[in-house]
Amino acid sequence: MAGFGDVLGWVKHEVSSRVPKADLDQRDADYIREQLPGLWLLASLYFRADVQGLDRIPADGPVLLVGNHSGGNLPPDTFVFTLAFCSYFGVERPFYQLAHNLVVSMPGLGSLRKFGTVAANHDNATLALKSGAALLVYPGGDYEVFRPSWKRHEVDFGGRKGYVKLAREAGVPIVPVASVGGQEAALFLDRGQWLASLLGVDRIARLKSVPILLAPPWGLAVSDMIPRLPLPTKIAIEVQEPISADDIAGEDDDTVNERVLASLQSGVDRLAAQRRFPVLG
Questions:
Q1: How far apart are CA 105 and CA 112, in angstroms?
Q2: Using 50, 70 and 90 to split pLDDT, how confident is the model at 10?
Q3: Tens of pLDDT, residues 21-33
Q4: What is the distance between the alpha carbons of residues 12 and 274, in angstroms, rounded to a whole number?
């Protein structure tokens, strides 16, 4: 008779086997070109998208874009920045975004892979940078993206700094990307890390949070896996000054991480000071 450990191992295998393998060729420049005008109009009207500082990103070559993350499993900051990047640099420039395994494998979200979204792991990230692409990562992951909404202007990676090693190994610069507004797309009440542990999904699906939130049309929701309507919050994004590959090579992980966090927090504070009301901006 199978024990609990055997059942847990089987479930974990079934979940991981359904995560699409990273295939950079799934990014479809023609598809992005067709979708970009309509989606950028939606972002401009619904989220009043305001993206500044794109000229600070190196004009070509591989680069690691590191952002603070907000908005749960439907992060409007990623949506807005991806559209802005493709509009500014052109759809032909290779650009990829890392996302949690469950987001990449959710039914109906195959179009994300056409925009360059791949499962978040070190191998996929290395593959993208070695191909010469720009890569957007959110080190805070589900820890940061599900933080309570009253902490919406706090940058918190939860101690994660593996992205520094990634940039050093690839020999690429880091460009911090600060954003505000995303954590107002719903009212996030609790990360639900205790619930993730209780349910075992931290071991099964590498999901450390089962958030509790208020969001239309469901009202109170437990977990963010059920489709919902994000509130029309104003998304403001500001690209910060790059940290060169030489600086990253010459400094330890903690020092580089502290520079990135300080840069992001400064940008978030500046953008937050310009907001008058939640959601409305």
A1: 10
A2: very low
A3: 556 888 999 999 9
A4: 45
Domain count, the chain: 1
Helix (H) or strand (E) holding 134: strand 134-137
Examine residue 92 and state whether it is found in any structural domain, yes or no: yes
Let me know how long the chain is: 281
pTM, entire model:
0.89
Among 109-118, 135-144, 153-162, the minimum mean pLDDT is found in 109-118
- CATH code at position 89: 3.40.1130
Q: What is the pLDDT of residues 68-83, one digit of tens each?
A: 999 998 899 999 999 9
The answer for 218, left when phi > 0, alpha when psi is -120 to 50, beta otherwise, is: alpha
Q: Is residue 213 part of a domain?
A: no
**Contact in structure between 234 and 269 (CB atoms under 8 Å):** no
DSSP string, 184-247: GSSEEEE--HHHHHHHTHHHHSS-----EEEETTTEEEESS-S------PPPEEEE---B-HHH
Angstrom distances, CA of residue 187 to CA of 68, 69, 99, 230: 18, 15, 22, 10
- Nearest partner of 94 among 116, 110, 73, judged by Cα: 116
Query: What CA–CA distance (Å, rounded) separates 278 from 31?
Result: 34
Determine the pLDDT at residue 200.
84
Alpha carbons 261 and 209: distance in angstroms, whole number: 22
- Token pair, residue 199, equals 């349910």
- Residue 276 to residue 281: CA distance in whole angstroms: 6
